Amino acid sequence: MKLKKNYLLSPGPTPVPPEVASAGAWPLIHHRTPQFQNIIKEVAQGLKYLFQTQHPVYFAACSGTGVMEAAVTNLMSPGEVMIVAEGGKFGERWSKIGAAFGCQVVPIKIEYGRGVTPEQVEAALKKNPGAKAVFTQLSETSTGCVFDIEAIGKVVAKTPALFVVDGISGLGAEVCYPDRWGVDCVLTGSQKGVMLPPGLGFISLSSKGWAACEKSKSPRFYFDLRAYKKALDKNDTPYTPAISLLFQLAEALKIIQKETIEGMWARHAWLGEATRSAVKALHLELFAERPGNVLTSVKTPAGVDGEKLVKEMRDDLGVTIAGGQEEMKGKVFRIAHLGYMDRFDILIAIGALETALKRQNFAMKLGAGVAAAQEILWQDPQR
Amino acid sequence: MKLKKNYLLSPGPTPVPPEVASAGAWPLIHHRTPQFQNIIKEVAQGLKYLFQTQHPVYFAACSGTGVMEAAVTNLMSPGEVMIVAEGGKFGERWSKIGAAFGCQVVPIKIEYGRGVTPEQVEAALKKNPGAKAVFTQLSETSTGCVFDIEAIGKVVAKTPALFVVDGISGLGAEVCYPDRWGVDCVLTGSQKGVMLPPGLGFISLSSKGWAACEKSKSPRFYFDLRAYKKALDKNDTPYTPAISLLFQLAEALKIIQKETIEGMWARHAWLGEATRSAVKALHLELFAERPGNVLTSVKTPAGVDGEKLVKEMRDDLGVTIAGGQEEMKGKVFRIAHLGYMDRFDILIAIGALETALKRQNFAMKLGAGVAAAQEILWQDPQR
Predict the structure, then answer these.
(1) Cα distance from B366 to chain A (closest Cα, Å)?
(2) Which tens digit of pLDDT belongs to each residue from B211-266?
(3) Number of Cβ atoms within 10 Å of the Cβ of B365
(4) Which of A200, A234, A259 is the last residue of a domain?
(5) Looking at the structure, do residues A208 and A328 belong to the same domain, yes or no?
(6) By C-alpha distance, which of A325, A239, A310, A210 is closest to A66?
(7) Residue range B280-317, pLDDT digits in tens
(8) Which residue of A has its CA nearest to B29?
(9) How far is A14 from chain B (nearest CA, A)?
(10) Same structural domain, B233 and B139
(11) Nearest to A245 among B60, B199, B239 (CB)
């Protein structure tokens, strides 16, 4: 069988740097020891930097959905109104979690691929003056659309409502200043910009968020942030932490701090621009109205089988991108430029895409995409 | 600085076999692919074997406490009565979770170190004929006491109540036949007998347990087992799984199936017997009334500083055992013989214990412990 390498270009999981990967195999140490407390202290500091916040960032063994639940149960009480920007699968997840915990969900329905506008949020807040919180995404992974968190924050700040941002795919890739932008809760998962395997969730609350947390009447235990706060104040965790993932987190945060957060943002913007340029050179159409630094979602062109395209890229070429989720299946495909990726990952993605399109006899000039990418990639913004 | 190796002899985390450790560093693959579905299929099969159940075993990214919460919210509705065998810190955790979700908790208070008796459970069930469920531990990690699940199961089976067993430290080390013994819910964590790093929780329900799950009115989302069932039926997971920990799980389950579950139980019993024999030869007193295969808890003898003992063993000798938790701090210490351990780990534990006791001028014959252990260890039950 022909040798084939595997390339992970999906918006989570993302590739893991070798230093981080190998830390996943380190011998465990016990978590209730001064030795482990030092690791907690180190990652707590690094997480504040990654989040660009002055507030503590708590971490739990869970997927991103776990910390989304934490945001809902720690901020909302049953019966309270939550306004949700429903611009895709992950916006819809906010609504499902809210409904499961008895909140009154007021969705702002947005066409897939479009972002929520500050005006829409303003109108929803006006119509629901008692709303407890507004829930959005920084980047809606299912469509590739980035939301204007800064502008929405200004609108929410005029009301008593809390502002909650799911940064699961966006954090580290998109500019985000939660403290400055009036974000009361921001969260992310480990398998995206943080460059770790999945299994850790991270969440931070503003002072206003904490006040709500203390008063929330939602039932909660594993995700009760009051327990995480009490523990982290002593460099501890309330339950056995995912020790090997925390070893890996410490390594990843070193890499992140070395590149700097501004450097990360610039790199992701650069890779995103190159990808979009390549896609356009292949006469393909972008799906997201406001595409971001995280991933590029592309409309499957007429005459091409989108599911087959993704499958062939993965199984024949070794290049894993993502297809569309649920209703979007086959209609879009999504190329990530997220986490541990550099310029050559873009060449791989576009090279594989051209090959797979050509096999389906899509009318295109082979090489046009990679050439267009090179035009952007030859100049490095961080040089 | 003198070379010193580190030995993990605590009841979680436990040492990880090298094959399992290295799988934690493998390159990630995407979780929504046929390639990953094969891994899910494989671990689902292996988990049924480990659990000795015909029912599916679900897994989530979380610590053991996460699946304890899953047991409570999926089986109980607010206001319903749960009987809890409170024999230590983990029994108390059942009560705390129940209270957080609005259940009426009826604790059976047991002196630390003692086990709950079938008679006590029977009396509690008689006094609370409407009780929805009885919650116990297979092994109460904080005291080292093993509960007689088979006998308790017989008592619970005479009533409509569900029987829930936290097997977090016990599963794989103590004989347990959930289907035969009338257990409706059994759960465990990854960092104990399963020989993985922490970060995965496992839970299985009987048919009666599933019927309760379908009817439960407790709010839940991340730990809603209905979503896990729907996904696992298609070899999938509802949220992004902890991919690297699942790679490791597949490796660990291979080792477990090679040794056989009966072999695991026999090995743990043998190591436990050797440890107890050594402890007695040093004229130390066991703490647990019904000590098990998981760990040996020992009363700190008069004149010895228990916290200093544990600290010196860890920091000077490189041997991590566990001290007592909360009220038991300093009063007991706990030596695990759990997971990836063989006869020589017992010699290490006892050798380090003798050294640390001697340093505190405890009256003892140096070598008496290791010699007593050897009397048991020289013969291998699996040979």
Answers:
(1) 28
(2) 999 999 999 999 999 999 999 999 999 999 999 999 999 999 999 999 999 999 99
(3) 11
(4) A259
(5) no
(6) A239
(7) 999 999 999 999 999 999 999 999 999 999 999 999 99
(8) A8
(9) 8
(10) yes
(11) B199
Domain count, chain B: 2
Q: Domain ends where: A210, A243, A259?
A: A259
Query: Is B267 within 8 Å of B195 (Cβ atoms)?
Result: no
Question: Nearest Cβ partner of B219 from A101, A320, A322?
Answer: A101
User: CA B351 to CA B278: how far, in whole Å?
Assistant: 10
Only one residue has tokens 């104040």, namely: A233
**In terms of residues, how long is chain B?**
383
Q: Which amino acid is at B209?
A: G
Structure confidence at residue A1 as a pLDDT band (50, 70, 90): confident
Kindly state whether residues A207 and A351 are assigned to the same domain: no
The whole domain housing B70 covers 18-259
Share of chain A above pLDDT 90, in %: 99
Check whether residue B232 and residue B283 sit in a common domain: no
Return d(Cα B140, Cα B351) in angstroms, integer: 26
- Rounded Cα distance, A339 and A318, in Å: 19
Q: Quick one: chain B helix, strand, coil %, rounded to 5?
A: 40, 15, 40
pLDDT digits (tens, 9 = 90+) for B37-87: 999 999 999 999 999 999 999 999 999 999 999 999 999 999 999 999 999
- Here the ipTM equals 0.97
What is the Cα–Cα distance from B108 to A382, expressed in whole angstroms? 64
Cβ pair B66:A239 closer than 8 A: yes
Token pair 């460099």 is found at: A235
